């Protein structure tokens, strides 16, 4: 086990929108920066329709959930961890009233075998036009 603080970036997850890594390893813990549903190499956000001014005209929370979970998986695996090693998940939703039931159903599909601690909060906006973002902590064996 190392005590070095190692910055890690995935070649598959969307590029960060600021000066931060996808993840940082400290000892046998892996801390992920906030992860959204955007696709790597593009500004395209699965399940989101924007007008010409960049405002959300419609979105599909199910498509966004599946995409953000895939992006988390990419980062975990590229960093040497795995979905099963997740120990804590913080979920940010921009519309708890309309989206929580769908998100909770999809979450249960993905986490039926591994049940990390979870906190879900509603916020009024995220830095890009998305409806969900995850902040995760995992272990590295």
Unreliable stretches (pLDDT < 50, length at least 5) are none
The fraction of residues in strands falls at 25-35%
Helix content: 10-25%
Number of domains: 1
CATH class: Alpha Beta
Helix-and-strand structural type: alpha+beta
Number of strands: 8
Query: What series of H and E elements makes up the topology?
Result: EEEEEHEHEE
CA(first)-CA(last) distance: 9 Å
CATH architecture: 2-Layer Sandwich
Q: Helical stretch count?
A: 2
Mean pLDDT across the residues is 94
What characterizes the major β-sheet?
Answer: 6 strands, mixed
- CATH homologous superfamily (4th level) name: RutC-like
How would you sum up the global shape? globular
The spatial strand order of the largest sheet comes to 1-2-3-8-6-7
Question: Which descriptors would you attach to this protein?
Answer:
141 residues; alpha+beta; 60s Ribosomal Protein L30, Chain: A; six-stranded mixed beta sheet; two-stranded antiparallel ribbon; 2 helices; 8 strands; 23% helix; 2-aminomuconate deaminase; RutC-like_sf; YjgF/YER057c/UK114
List the helices and strands and how they pair.
Elements (H helix, E strand, L loop, with lengths): L4 E4 L14 E4 L2 E4 L15 E3 L5 E4 L1 H18 L7 E8 L2 H15 L6 E6 L9 E8 L2
Parallel strand pairs: 6-7
Antiparallel strand pairs: 1-2, 2-3, 3-8, 4-5, 6-8
Helix pairs in contact: 1-2
Protein name: 2-aminomuconate deaminase
InterPro entries: RutC-like_sf, YjgF/YER057c/UK114
Pfam families: Ribonuc_L-PSP
């Amino acid at each position: 086990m190392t005590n070095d603080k190692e910055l890690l970036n995935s070649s598959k997850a969307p590029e960060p929108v600021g000066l931060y890594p996808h993840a940082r390893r400290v000892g046998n813990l892996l801390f992920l920066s906030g992860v959204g549903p955007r696709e790597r190499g593009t500004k395209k956000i699965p399940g989101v329709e924007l007008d010409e001014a960049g405002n959300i005209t419609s979105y599909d929370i199910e498509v966004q959930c599946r995409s953000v979970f895939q992006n988390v998986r990419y980062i975990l695996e590229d960093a040497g961890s795995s979905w099963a090693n997740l120990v804590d998940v913080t979920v940010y939703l921009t519309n708890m009233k309309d989206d929580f039931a769908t998100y909770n159903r999809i979450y249960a599909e993905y986490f039926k075998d591994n049940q990390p601690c979870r906190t879900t909060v509603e916020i009024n906006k995220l830095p890009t036009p998305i409806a969900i973002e995850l902040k995760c902590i995992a272990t590295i064996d």
